[in-house]
């Protein structure tokens, strides 16, 4: 359908899982895609699978210089930037309550998920403005919208992403930059499958999905909508893709 024809998208953490599925879908819909990924080999593989001239850029989203270079490289290579998808992030089996979680796990989640998103916006939004506006797509989580026990490090980071999404939407609306976030529930990437298998609370959560388990492509489809002009009047929203978990 070429819903992204003429657009350039930078997707962080697109070497596997949701990011890879999104890169492939965006390219299929006509976008020129830059994949910013800390695992260089995985990034190159995603670029190959996406096709349509996609490129991979070795990037650590927690390093300001690294993410700044990725944005500059993407915009320089393709001539503009229209879509910034801050997808990089994730939790680990070490997460727990605020009482029990290792302090290192808290700072790991904050640095990767929240700070990584902050830096992506810091360097990506000015490039979107130079292109005449565009779409920022952040990744929050259903844990930012409901109480899920034993996930307090990840919850804190993803709650912060939901909040900064709203504030940035207000700050940059005049520049025609839309800022939204997707809030997935447990999405069956290989990493999440391992987490669910080792965490009783996550297993219970997965079992409560009303429409069945979520695939990476389900999240990619929402990202496609937010990247396209179909969502031109949508900004400051945190949109669940959760198989009904947050209402059940």
Descriptors:
47% helix; alpha/beta; 8 helices; 15% strand; globular; 248 residues
Describe this protein's structure:
The structure is a single chain. With 248 residues, this protein is an alpha/beta fold. The protein is 47% helix and 15% strand. The protein contains 8 helices and 7 strands; from the N terminus they run E-H-E-H-E-H-E-H-E-H-E-H-H-H-E. A 7-stranded parallel sheet has the order 3-2-1-4-5-6-7, sandwiched between helices. Strand 2 (32-37), helix 2 (40-50) and strand 3 form a beta-alpha-beta unit. Helix 3 (64-78) runs parallel beside helix 4 (103-130). The mean pLDDT is 94.
Helix and strand arrangement:
Blueprint: E1 8-12, H1 17-28, E2 32-37, H2 40-50, E3 55-58, H3 64-78, E4 83-86, H4 103-130, E5 134-139, H5 152-172, E6 177-184, H6 190-198, H7 200-207, H8 216-227, E7 238-241
Parallel strand pairs: 1-2, 1-4, 2-3, 4-5, 5-6, 6-7
Helix pairs in contact: 1-2, 1-8, 3-4, 4-5, 6-7
| Backbone shape | globular
Q: Termini, distance in Å? A: 34 Å
Tell how many strands the DSSP assignment holds.
Answer: 7
The total count of helices amounts to 8
Rg from C-alpha positions? Answer: 17 Å
Low-confidence stretches: none
Mean pLDDT: 94
> What amount of the residues lies in strands?
5-15%
Main sheet specs: 7 strands, parallel
What structural class results from the helix and strand content?
alpha/beta
Strand order of the largest sheet: 3-2-1-4-5-6-7
Question: Could you estimate the helical fraction of the residues in percent?
Answer: 40-55%
String of helices and strands: EHEHEHEHEHEHHHE
